[in-house]
Specification:
- It is an enzyme of class 2 (transferase).
- About 90% of the residues lie in helices and about 0% in strands.
- The protein has 4 helices and no strands.
- Helix 3 packs antiparallel against helix 4.
- The longest helix is centred in the C-terminal third of the chain and has 33 residues.
- The chain starts with a helix and ends with a helix.
Length: about 120
């Protein structure tokens, strides 16, 4: 029987927690990005002049984690299918990696912009 309402919410929260735990255990990049978030949140609070700036700085770091989770999911599915070298498998993994890279560019651009405004403008 399909769960609805609060039972669905609780089950979904459990699935999400399992996903976070799997990423923490199996993905060194995810652990590094979580550490970046741990350092970045207080730094964003200090660095941002407005709540909007603070929210953008923190959100950019969360975006990196979100894309890293999606990239890890893609890699897991591709590896589940098989470890033999295949053009489409490599393409999927490379595109996931490119998405992580773009999320890092977005975060870096926001952080550099706020740093510039704070110290050089």
């Amino acid at each position: 029987m399909k769960k609805t309402g609060l039972a669905h919410f609780v089950a979904a929260a459990g699935y999400s927690w399992r996903g976070f735990c799997a990423a923490w255990r199996g993905e060194s990049a995810f652990r590094q990005e979580v550490m970046l978030l741990v350092v970045g949140v207080p730094l964003a609070w200090w660095l941002g002049h407005t709540m909007l700036e603070r929210a953008l700085l923190v959100s950019s770091l969360l975006l990196v984690l979100l894309v890293e989770l999606m990239n890890s999911a893609i890699e897991s599915v591709v590896d589940r299918i098989g470890f033999e070298v295949h053009e489409l498998s490599g393409k999927a993994k490379d595109m996931g990696s490119a998405a992580v890279f773009l999320s890092l560019v977005i975060a870096g651009t926001l952080w550099i912009s706020v740093l510039w405004e704070r110290f050089y403008a």
